[in-house]
Amino acid sequence: MEEALSRGWDVTVFHRGKHEAPAGAHALYGDRTEPGGLAALAAGEWDYAVDTWSDAPSAVHDAARLLSGRVGHYAYVSSRSVHGVPSAPGADEDAPVVESSIDHDGTDYARAKRGGELAAEAVFGDRALFVRAGLILGPYENVGRLPWWLNRIARGGPVLAPGPRDLPLQYVDARDLAAWTLDAAQKGLSGPYNMVSPSGHATMESFLTACREATGSDAEFRWTPPEAIEEAGIAPWRELPVWLPPGELHGTLHQGNVERALATGLRCRPVAETVTDTWAWLVSIGGEPDQRPDRPRVGLDPETEARVLGL
Description:
Distance between the termini: 46 Å
Low-confidence stretches: none
Number of domains: 2
Oligomer: single chain
Strand content: 15-25%
Radius of gyration: 20 Å
Largest sheet: 4 strands, parallel
């Protein structure tokens, strides 16, 4: 929304009103899961619609049908999860996807997102764009992955740093995702696009170093091999956010092919910029973001970290 407003666009936000819409946007209110919940969208015309729904695909289908004929282009923010886990390293948009339908109940994230794609396509056809996002980081993140690392490193002292140091990471800054999506809508792009940085855009070392520099911390990284982390019973991704050890899951989440997005204008800002801006945002809100209610809290317990580090 901020990206669209910065371009001077007229922006309409449809939401339940649990958070303030950005200044300058026109807000429409409704709950798409309730009978008549889309009534606020019954009138009006728009050049582009961007839908971020993550639950039952029928909600995407209902919205798309209501807007059909009054919206020029429909971008659905999907997920690389539609390819299933594991998927082969280097997989592109043509890799197999999970089976789903518009009638999926939304209980499985990958199938819900795939069903959302099918719902948008059923109505908008070649005017439907599937933005298959990977790991999303940056200011306003409410899952807590980058915020946890920033807050942990800001405390300083010995920090369990999961190795190897040169382990490639693949993520997308939410602002880069937004800019590409709006550009793609203007261009009339359709079909699926993996929306994530090239693998190795950052490494674990450059990522954690950026956190230390942004916070001005005296943190001392204790690089720990994956085998020791596994032996300690520490869960990758959940207890050590962003990190996955070399293997199938790393190949799935950090080694995807993004040539199609790069060829159509995706630009990924340096990791230091993403980290620094996220820290500035965290400081501005007191250090702790509102936790997304449908996701578990992430991060390593201090006692576990101290035990593994022998402190």
